[in-house]
Amino acid sequence: MKKRIYRIITVLVILLSISFRIFGTDIITSQAAQSTTRITNSYYDYGSDGEYAVTGVSSNGSTTGTLGTFSITGNTESIGNVNGYTAFEVKSDVVSFDYSIGTKYISDDDYIWHIVNDKTKDFDGGKLESNVGNGTVLVQTSLTGEKWITEAVYYDVLGDKTTYYSDIYTSKVLQQVNGCFFRVIILYKLEKRIENNNYGPISVSNYDEKRCAEIYKFYLIDSGENQADATQPDSEPRMELGETINTGKDNGYSGNVPIDDKDPHREWNIGRFYVNGYTRSTIDSNDNTIVFVKTLGDRVTLWFNLEQDIYALNGNSDLYINEDNNAYDQYFRTGNLNFKHGTLIIRYTDYQGVRHDPVIYTDYLAACATTGADTKVELFEEGDYEIALDYEVVEDKAIDTYNDYRIFFKFKIRNGNCMAFPFDISTGNELSDGSITSNGFKLDLAKSRYLTIDVIRYSLKLVDGVYVQDARSNSPAKDGESYTQQGVYQFTVRNLYTNTEDTSKIIYVGTDPIYKALSRGIYTLDEINTMLSEGGVLESDGTITMPITEVPDESIDDGDTERLPENDVPDQVISDSEPASDSSTVSVNPTVTPEEIVDVVPERNGSNNYVIIVVIALIGIVACVGILAYRKEIFKSKDKEQVSYSDQTSNTETKMNDSSDKEKK
Fold first, then answer.
1. Which domains does the chain possess?
2. Is there a contact between 368 and 304 (Cβ–Cβ < 8 Å)?
3. Is the dihedral of CA 573, 575, 580, 584 positive or negative?
4. What confidence tens digit (pLDDT) does each residue in 449-492 have?
5. CA distances (Å), 330 to each of 241, 247, 281, in order?
6. pTM
7. For the segment 579-601, what is each residue's pLDDT rounded down to a tens digit?
8. Is 301:387 a contact under the CB 8 Å cutoff?
9. Residue 302: how many CA atoms within 13 Å on its side-chain side?
């Protein structure tokens, strides 16, 4: 009983272990991929008449509670701090920001602190576009930690007509690849009623009030692995892209006016875009677009180098980038937006021809770190890309003049490999060239979406004793496509953007012996048919058994055959030490001559003798082990029999003595 319980427990432990191996890793990975982290805040108390300020001001207040809680969610890991900011590595994807408002300051009780409407627009030495109202939330970013750009703002978050939601922002790839400082600022005014002021018979309600701010600061950067493998600005080869054009004014950056000597943009550039991190470049003859070919380890990267102080273009403080607060891009159909100090737009088209929504970086020129610095725009995978930088320049004079400018370019990225990988549908194992599978296979392009693949399927039919090959299908293939019908599959892979040779592989699908025979790679179909026509038998495992051919013994003289001269008899056939036999048989390969057969026979016998000796030795060893084990069991059983016999003898003698005593009496 104890053994049975032990066995059941053992089986359960094994099953639990297997289940954990199957499912546990996925669970742990899923939990590790996404985590939510609360960010601590600095609290500011400006008193009743103070202005909201954060630049150059230290935290000067304390409170037992805040208006809400702030957290970030993503695949992040803490890495200490950068310039005093709590820092996180981003392992993958992007990070979402959440500011959830609590109920601490939402109350109808005038005698406790509660949020009230604040009509000021003053903030940090400037002006907000709207009143603070019943709380305002701002998200600001900086590539240096000094020059801050407001990315998002939510006014009157607790007002009667609010549409505020807690998910306030999502980080951008451009920010993470360069490393970016963030600060989330919450502005609000609190009030509570205290004892009334009495002026004779008149009692006046008295209130205490204060303006408050919460600031949450942190830093995000791509993981160390990404940084270590990243392309550097000076990596070669590299190619500069884009040309500046004057698009006119307020026409969706759609015009094309030549930049002449009278144009304020003459003789200088706002900056330069360039691409590196590729192996080779070519031109797509269909549309004359530049194609960057990447190979294993390449990370195609777009950079921008800001060449001008945007507030003093070409060294002229009267020429600067204007804040274009009511702009749109006709080409990308963006709708009206506040482009601020230049907007960068990137649109991606995938291998299926689907145009994704453009990614828009407003205030891009202001966000760039410093003049002369290379800013990484984004890392790219296979696909087609369209890039535009739209900005407005104002020339400050008696009558200000405004001009819109645009840098626009396209490029494509393609993988340079010319391979597709077949995998067994049932086992998931990769199949090599010439492999056979009974279940079928599917093709994996390894994320090379622009390869041209053609698949031909042949069937084999037995006609008049020989196999005839017949093409049954010939069609292009796509990534992940499965093939399960019995037959011979030949697929050819071509890369239209490189000069590499086509890759061709053959996979056999089915259980028919002919496919097994071909997959062995020993004989071609013509050779197999020849062997079958000569009497060969195709076995179920794909091997071919040829008929036995008798080799006459020329050493026997039957009287009817003229004996050959003694010196014409091969030494290998007749020797003084070995008598001639009546007959001998061998398995004949149709490509082997009779003379070669005579030479082969002794070698096969010697090999067989060696094998026989090894087999006999193994049998002897196994027999010895078996005998020892058997003797051990016999000794055990004899011991038990002796003990049993001894007990029986003792009992018998006792009974006989008792019987003898009775007779005597």
1. 33-226 (no CATH), 231-415 (no CATH), 421-541 (2.60.40), 547-599 (no CATH)
2. yes
3. negative
4. 888 999 999 999 989 888 999 999 999 998 889 999 999 999 99
5. 21, 11, 30
6. 0.65
7. 444 433 333 344 333 333 333 33
8. no
9. 24
